[in-house]
Design goal:
Number of helices: 11
Strand content: under 5%
Largest sheet: 2 strands, parallel
Helix content: 55-70%
Number of strands: 2
Shape: globular
Number of domains: 2
Radius of gyration: 23 Å
Order of helices and strands: HEHEHHHHHHHHH
Length: about 230
């Protein structure tokens, strides 16, 4: 159960952003928690950040189960035929294995399906069944050490990143759009403001208490004098 949410956002590189995340972890005192998890999808830079800053603090890396679910569903549909009963049955079996931490069985069956379909030719379409199944197999292999879901549930740790995904959408609604254009400084300032607004501690209050780096666009009394 979430108690307090704080948000960190920036246009910085992933390497620079990792230091911002680490600073927020220490500011919140999260490194002192007895049980702590780091949940995200399989993007390589997410796990580089984790290994650089959070492993040493005792965080447990957890592959977001929803992202895994999407890969398994697509692979089952591709291997057995979209919409077929066989596809649903294979997906259900894979899902049960994943939820139960039976990663070896999952990898074995995915590999067998990939071998049955054959190697995906270079330049094939994204929806090519051979490519879809091979990508799911690679995804599971690359993240197998982060799929001990029974252990995570026993520890009371989250296995979904839905809260993060919804927060990203709230940030994106403010800074992304066909009618929005930003200079880098402006985009960074807006991200800091949006992150402070979405945080559920005193981040917004502390933000507004900081001295402004620039003066007001319209000086005090200027409009009154013009009138």
């Amino acid at each position: 159960m979430k108690l307090v949410k704080t948000v960190v956002a920036s246009v910085a590189t992933s390497e620079e952003f990792g230091w911002q995340v680490a600073a927020e972890v220490h500011r919140r005192g999260l490194h002192r928690a007895k049980r702590k998890g780091y949940v995200c999808d399989g993007q390589k830079y997410n796990w580089t950040l984790f290994e650089m800053h959070l492993v040493v603090l005792g965080f447990i890396g957890i592959l977001d189960f929803i992202h895994l679910l999407a890969y398994l569903y697509a692979a089952a549909q591709a291997s057995e035929g979209k919409g077929s009963e066989q596809a649903w049955g294979r997906y259900e079996k894979w899902l049960r294995w994943a939820w139960g931490g039976q990663v070896k069985e999952l990898i074995k069956d995915l590999r067998q399906q990939s071998e049955r379909l054959g190697e995906a030719p270079e330049g094939c379409a994204e929806e090519d069944a051979r490519r879809v199944v091979a990508e799911a197999l690679g995804y599971v292999r690359n993240n197998k050490e982060r799929m001990d879901y029974p252990r995570y549930r026993m520890l009371g740790l989250p296995v979904f990143s839905a809260g993060v995904e919804s927060t990203i959408k709230q940030v994106n609604r403010r800074v992304k759009g066909s009618e929005k254009f930003w200079l880098q400084g402006g985009a960074e300032a807006m991200l800091q403001l949006r992150a402070a607004h979405l945080s559920e501690d005193d981040t917004a209050a502390r933000y507004w208490q900081q001295p402004r780096p620039e003066g007001r666009a319209v000086g005090e009394g200027r409009l009154n004098t013009a009138a």
